[in-house]
Amino acid sequence: MSEHREETREETKPEAENRSSIAWRTLRLSGGDIEEKEDEIAAEFPLTIRLDGEEFATLVCSPDDLADLVFGFLASEGVIREADDIRNWSLDEQRGFAYVELQRPQSTAKELHSKRIIGSCCGKSRQFYFHNDARTARTITGGAAIPAERCFELMSRLQASSAGFHLTGGIHHAALCDETGDGIVVRADIGRHNALDKLFGHCLRRGLSTKRRIIAFSGRLSSEVVLKAAKIGCPILLSKSAPTDLALRLAVDLGITCVGFIRADSLNVYTHPQRIVMPM
């Protein structure tokens, strides 16, 4: 890790612990009664990433854990593979800009990051929406095997930590932990993809392996969410919600175990069920 970048991190203004919501004066009608009250509203923050002096992307996000978001998004887009690929970076939260300088120029043309393609791989049905998905999504073999009870436990812990959602109703949560349920890290954002990128960035910045990690997620298991999990490298993806058919077809090809509709004492295992140990 370069000395220059470490100095920049220390100079960057620390992020507040909770800026994901703001109070808004609201007129509420309920059961024929009208009252004026303060309601907590999810904060929405535009963050523009400038890469090597040029504008690369603008993310609409929650204004928490922005450093994790920048690193995770760039890794997800295939711009970096590890934290040390960034030579220098800084964050101007007041203006909403992140400035990133790479150790080496990008190997892929900028326009390919938004180029849509649909193709197959090795005769399989794998389809990617964007060029960088085909470059960065990894097929996962092996990985953790956990008892079904762990799925219930992790989803319960995710919901217990979802204060932002309970407060505003407008924030997604994602948690990352190991197969024992320890070392749990939770990130939140108005964008479900951003929440996953924040987990990815957290691991990159701290040099944490994701090979035997599990993602518990508050939202729908879409194809984009499965692709995010493949890019992070997590073999098991848990959700309280439903999957889509393309998500499951991608999960089959990418080696990801998808578990959905985790509620109380029931769940559905859709793909690669060998990683979920059912009760005898």
Short description:
The chain is α/β, with parallel strands linked by helices and 280 residues long. Helix content is 29%, strand content 30%. It has helices at residues 3-11, 66-76, 131-136, 148-160, 163-168, 192-206, 223-232, 245-254, and strands spanning 21-30, 33-42, 45-51, 54-61, 86-92, 97-102, 146-147, 172-178, 185-189, 213-217, 236-239, 257-263, 266-269, 276-277.
Structure description:
β3 (45-51) and β4 (54-61) form a beta hairpin. This protein has helices spanning 3-11, 66-76, 131-136, 148-160, 163-168, 192-206, 223-232, 245-254, and strands at 21-30, 33-42, 45-51, 54-61, 86-92, 97-102, 146-147, 172-178, 185-189, 213-217, 236-239, 257-263, 266-269, 276-277. α2 (66-76) crosses α6 and α6 (192-206) packs parallel to α7 (223-232). The chain contains 8 helices and 14 strands. The chain is an alpha/beta fold and 280 residues long. Strands 9-8-10-11-12-13 form a 6-stranded mixed β-sheet. Strands 4-3-6-5 form a 4-stranded mixed β-sheet. The protein is flat and about 55 Å long. Helices cover 29% and strands 30% of the residues.
